[in-house]
Amino acid sequence: MIYTVTLNPSIDYVVRLERFVSGITNRTTNEEYYIGGKGINVSCVLSELGIQSTALGFTAGFTGEAIENGLQKMGICSEFIRLKDGISRINLKIKADKESEINTQGPYISDSEFGQLLLKTEKITDGDTIVLAGSIPKAVSDNAYEQILQRLEGKDVRIVVDATEKLLLNCMPYRPFLIKPNRQELSEIFRKEMATEQDIRNSAFVLRELGARNVLVSLGGEGAVLFAEDGNIYHSNVLKEKVINTVGAGDSMIAGFIAGYEKTKDYRYALRLGSACGNATAFSSGLAQKEKIFAVLQKLT
Ligand SMILES: Nc1ncnc2c1ncn2[C@@H]1O[C@H](COP(=O)(O)OP(=O)(O)OP(=O)(O)O)[C@@H](O)[C@H]1O
Ligand SMILES: [Mg+2]
Fold first, then answer.
1. Distance from the CA of 84 to the center of ligand 1, in angstroms?
2. Distance CA 65, CA 86 (A)
3. Where does 84-220 show beta strands of DSSP type E?
4. Ligand number, closest to the Cα atom of 101
5. Are 282 and 249 in contact (CB under 8 A)?
6. Any idea what the CATH number is for the domain that residue 137 is in?
7. Hey, is 261 helix, strand or coil?
8. What digits encode the pLDDT tens for the residues 203-240?
């Protein structure tokens, strides 16, 4: 089983208007909402690829219920810990002449509620995969991911981490199967601009030395490079289609990579399917759906 962890899921409320002016009443021309959070995004795209996963994390209040119901409707299993107080986040994404976002903090998580999540992770066993994705909310200790990974030590679990800076580095001793920094995240880790291919290669090699088994560096519209455990470096490109939304492209890529690797144990194919999912999300208004993913996959070399 693949388990995804989303500590602070959200409902992303995307509103469109021609112009946004602060200090007055603005009226929208269109609005949509999506259930969000990086781990949940991975579960959604896995589901498009026909792979079951279980979404773990925390939900609260009426928005938490909406998140759980939404996932159920999509056929995705979830076992969230329901928090006693507060509501799961509603993040506002304003798409006007410029794009603005208001991201909220999310509910309080007590130590005992976090302990309940740790208990849930105990059933993760040999052959399973765990995806830890996204930042850690203020409400929990910043070593939350390490606490989860410590409990998995000694088990043959594939660990996937998509996080930034110290949060990611602190997971390295647990030998993650996959990490997927983008260019900016690499710059933040190494406090250095990633101007050349050599910069990226050097950084990826350091991350591999620190413990990451596969380092997938995603470069947005420039594609991605995989520094694989087999010692090879694989490249993937992108299709030139109209880009509609790149939010979640990285999460989609992770889902595709995991699915591709599970199916074939072949890094080249895993990268290709990962790329197809990333591309397909960039060319869609929400996350990629299966028709689009497989149409892109056919065209990607
Ligand atoms: N403009 C684009 N055109 C085509 N494909 C894209 C584009 N942007 C992203 N992708 C695809 O998605 C992959 C991951 O994108 P990106 O590097 O933007 O991830 P990210 O920064 O982690 O995104 P997020 O964290 O929002 O999910 C890229 O390697 C590529 O395959
Ligand atoms: Mg990302």
1. 36
2. 12
3. 89-95, 99-102, 129-133, 158-162, 178-179, 215-218
4. 1
5. yes
6. 3.40.1190.20
7. helix
8. 999 999 999 999 999 999 999 999 999 999 999 999 99
Cα atoms in the Cβ-side hemisphere of radius 13 Å centred on 63: 22
CA-proximal residue: ligand 1, atom 23 (nearest) = 250
Report which secondary-structure segment, H or E, holds 235: strand 233-236
pLDDT in tens, 39-84: 999 999 999 999 999 999 999 999 999 999 999 999 999 999 999 9
Pairing of strands 178-179, 158-162: parallel
Give the C-alpha separation, 146 to 265, whole Å.
Answer: 27
For residue 219, give the ligand nearest its CA.
Answer: 1
Q: What distance in Å separates the CA atoms of residue 203 and residue 275, rounded to the nearest whole number?
A: 21
Cα–Cα distance, 243 to 240 (Å, whole number): 8
Burial (0-12, 13-18, 19+ Cβ within 10 Å), 96 = middle
Element (H or E) spanning 169, and its range? helix 165-169
Range of the domain at 69: 2-299
- Write the pLDDT tens digit of every residue in 265-295: 999 999 999 999 999 999 998 999 999 999 9
- If you measure from the C-alpha of residue 112 to the centroid of ligand 1, how many angstroms do you get, rounded to a whole number? 37
- C-alpha 252/C-alpha 296 separation (Å) is 13
Q: Are the beta carbons of 258 and 243 closer than 8 angstroms?
A: no
| pTM over cut 0.70 | yes
The set of catalytic residues is 251
Residue 58 is classified by DSSP as E
| Count of domains for the chain | 1
Contacts of 268 (CB under 8 A, 6+ apart): 234
